[in-house]
UniProtKB/TrEMBL annotation:
PROSITE patterns: ALPHA_KINASE (PS51158). Keywords: ATP-binding, Kinase, Nucleotide-binding, Serine/threonine-protein kinase, Transferase. Residues 33-274 form the Alpha-type protein kinase domain. The keyword ATP-binding applies. This is Alpha-protein kinase vwkA. It comes from Geodia barretti (Barrett's horny sponge). Gene3D superfamilies: MHCK/EF2 kinase, Phosphorylase Kinase, domain 1. The keyword Kinase applies. GO terms for molecular function: ATP binding; protein serine/threonine kinase activity.
Length: 276
């Protein structure tokens, strides 16, 4: 391993998400082996399931009124690779193919096993987190920022439930290098020119939410200088665990502000000084 590889490995390890709740750390892990190869889909049998309806983009008042989620009810036929190709702190990720929509997909399952990790509710909350993040990204895009600031998008997520009571998170498969900008504990780790914008986005969510949450754990795929598509952002709220296993609560918010330094984007948006 050469020095730059060592640095990259350290960077990856410190910037991984942190699982917050004690029960999450105690639950046993699935057995799996990562395999980066996309399988020959002709050799993979198809699975029938039901998918959650698209939730669409919500306004801030919609979020404040509370989101009502509809359980999976739309038929879907798909194929899932036998082994995952990637893993995060919470989930393992499989290549998949959606035969209904004819598109490559990413299917995610929780790494931990046990009833609390395979309930529809455990998967459905991810839709809520993603809807909140999408709303804040939309508001952020509409604000005046320094010229050349990229637009933020958030990958939508659906929940798929199968007859054997297996559940998956379903996302469109995005091919590209994933850039990690921050984790959920204040660690910033990116030399991307978009890094400052992403840290400002986290600060923006604190201000616009009236100091009730910080969207963090930011990673995404960059499309040139124009757009960053965020994958699986997390929320730190005032109550640890409220937005799932990666919600570190007030401690996570404090850690964000311990490391965050307002730059030109925060100043242009009037965020400077609006701290804890
Ligand atoms: Zn700031």
């Amino acid at each position: 391993m050469n020095p730059s590889d060592v640095e990259a490995a350290v960077c990856r390890s410190v910037s991984a998400s942190i699982i917050g709740t004690a029960f999450a750390m105690r639950a046993p892990l699935r057995t799996y082996k990562l395999d980066p190869i996309i399988p020959n889909w002709r050799l993979i049998s198809q699975t029938e399931g039901e998918k959650s309806p698209a939730i669409g983009i919500k306004s801030l008042p919609d979020l404040q009124a509370g989101l009502t989620l509809t359980p999976p009810s739309i038929p879907i036929t798909f194929k899932c690779a036998p082994n995952p190709f990637a893993e995060g702190s919470e989930c393992i990720v499989y290549h998949g193919y959606d035969l209904t929509s004819k598109r490559a997909i990413a299917l995610k399952r929780y790494k931990r096993v046990g009833a609390q990790f395979n309930s529809p509710a455990c998967y459905m909350y991810k839709i809520k987190v993603r809807a909140i993040c999408t709303t804040y990204a939309t508001l952020f895009n509409d604000k005046t920022k320094p010229p050349g600031s990229a637009r933020l998008e958030v990958t939508p997520v659906d929940v798929v439930s199968c007859p054997g009571q297996d559940h998956y998170l379903l996302e469109t498969f995005l091919d590209g290098k994933v850039e990690k900008y921050s984790n959920n504990a204040g660690v910033v780790c990116s030399e991307s020119p978009h890094s400052e914008l992403l840290q400002s986005f986290s600060h923006f969510t604190w201000v616009v939410s009236r100091k009730s949450l910080v969207i963090c754990d930011l990673q995404g795929i960059e499309s040139g200088s124009y757009c960053v598509t965020l994958i699986d952002p997390a929320i730190n709220s005032l109550s640890a665990g409220f937005y799932g296993q990666t919600d570190l609560g007030r401690k996570g918010i404090e850690r964000f502000f311990e490391t965050h330094q307002c730059g030109t984007v925060c100043r242009a948006m009037g965020l400077s000084g609006q701290l804890l």
